[in-house]
Amino acid sequence: MKNFIKEKPEVLLWTVLLFVICAVIFYPYVFSENGQTSNVFATSRGSGKPSSYTTPVYPTPTPYDMYQVISPSGGEQLTFGSLFPVKWDPTSTYTSATDVIVYIIPQNIDISVFAPVRFLTKSTPNDGSEDWMVNLPPGNYLMGVVSANAGGFSSSGGQFSVVVGDTPLGRINTTLPLNQSLSVLQPKGGEIWAKRSTHNIVWTGGKDDWLIDIYLMSKNDGRVHSAIFKKTSNDGIEAWTVPQYLSPGSYWIGVGCANCAPDTFGSEGYPIGTFDIK
User: Fold this and answer.
1) DSSP category for residue 58
2) pLDDT tens digits, residue range 27-36?
């Protein structure tokens, strides 16, 4: 064998090179933790969910792109599931946009882990009003409205809060434009779940015919840890028993449409914060 390597060193070189190439290609797709090997979620996702999540960096929009939010103006306490008229001044900027983006900025979250912007709609007519069935977990939020081709996002209204009333957290089935994007309601962040305990994963948004994938991601490295459910019906709830093999630490749960085109608006949903597994 030694003589063979001396006579044909290029064989060894090509063998090592091939091994390196295979490692670079396949490592992001298969990994092992505590003896549990899982296919990374992206390999089975119709929407093309990446194998790791990188927080988007949103530039601040210029005043020319922002529209003044009239309602909520700040201080309101909105009840989950209630109908609320979102209003803005369609003439309050220097440009006259035909369509605008309406979005939410959650407060008191770790924006190093989570995207600071949650879109309610990708584009809606700039007529100054859209009805919204409040579908956010309890917490404090800001709202913003910018032109559809804005270069960034910032709040243009005061802080308001969402509370739970008679309607329990769950999927709100409505055709209102501001309610179509997926959003995780539970866990919303701050919970402590013990191994082998069972909890409801709750989400809202999406169409009735969407098939939903639910996945677990580690806060430590931002890598998809495992698929919890695949292609479940979009009914807004699944009971999950925390596996014994999971390492203690902080995690978050995401949901995504498994049978949607990759560019479908609202086909990925995230929580407000992380929860801990003990």
Assistant:
1) P
2) 333 333 333 3
